[in-house]
Amino acid sequence: MSSNQPATADKLPQHIAIIMDGNGRWAQARGKKRVFGHKAGMERAREMAEICGELGVKYLTLFAFSSENWNRPADEVSFLMELFATSLKNESKKLHKNNVQLKVIGDKAGFDKGLQKAIDKAEALTADNDGLTLYIAANYGGRWDILQASQKLLKSNEQITEANLSQYLATGDAPDPDLLIRTGGEKRISNFLLWQAAYSELYFSDALWPDFDSEHLKLALADYAQRQRRFGKTGEQVTG
Ligand code: FPP
Questions:
Q1: Does the CB atom of residue 62 touch ligand 1 within 6 A?
Q2: Domains along the chain with CATH numbers
Q3: Is this structure's pTM higher than 0.85?
């Protein structure tokens, strides 16, 4: 058993989604530029994927760049794009070795050709892996996702049902997230997996993302294990 195995492994979420917030504040608290925090945040994202894979979590979705993040100062946006491209190039072999399947979800057409190519290459390399599925949400918005799925559903001429629409969402291959974590102290969804999070358990941590280590994750998992998931039913119906 790995040392990262929590006491509550019987109630381990199959799919964890994370809004990685607080990189900028983490850097500023150290008298550094915001981008320094993004670099530390990237390291933390890599570590989180490793821990989740070891724990046996099947799906991890990380919110790396929202459709709205283009409005940040130009130098911060270009740093994030470069960090994304370099990380894809440097990390994909290791991810592959760890049996991780990487998928980038979001409007990829918004990225430059070099980054699109790096994404395609990393996705192709890891396509047949059956360990952790790691979704990186980049140029992603929940409303965009519902719109693009609706357009595909209309084109398909299938019946307009929840199940038919769900399959066209960017995370169509995965079950909805069981646990949605947001770090950095804010308590909002920020246009993340709007449809998919309908019944997710929400967990808000005050820790800034670069500080969110395996101990923080264990706390979140222990909290999740205490929750009674009712999906609209009564407590008696669920336990009885
Ligand atoms: C939010 O912190 C973080 C982001 C907008 C970017 C997240 C990016 C990373 C963690 C690095 C890249 C990761 C991958 C997987 C490619 P913030 O800047 O809003 O922090 P603040 O609220 O303190 O300003």
A1: yes
A2: 9-138+174-227 (3.40.1180.10)
A3: yes
C-alpha–C-alpha distance, residues 44 and 20, integer Å: 9
69 an active-site residue?
Answer: yes
Ligand 1 pocket test target in 38, 50, 67, 72 with most atoms within 8 Å of CB: 38
Q: What is the mean pLDDT of residues 220-233?
A: 90
- For residue 134, which of 163, 179, 92 has the smallest C-alpha distance? 92
Tell me whether residue 213 is one of the annotated catalytic residues.
no
Give the residue-averaged pLDDT of 55-65. Answer: 97
Return d(Cα 119, Cα 87) in angstroms, integer: 10
Which run of H or of E encompasses 112?
Answer: none
- 35 CA to centre of ligand 1 in angstroms: 9
Using CA atoms, how far residue 93 sits from 89, 98, 101, 121, in Å, is 8, 9, 11, 11
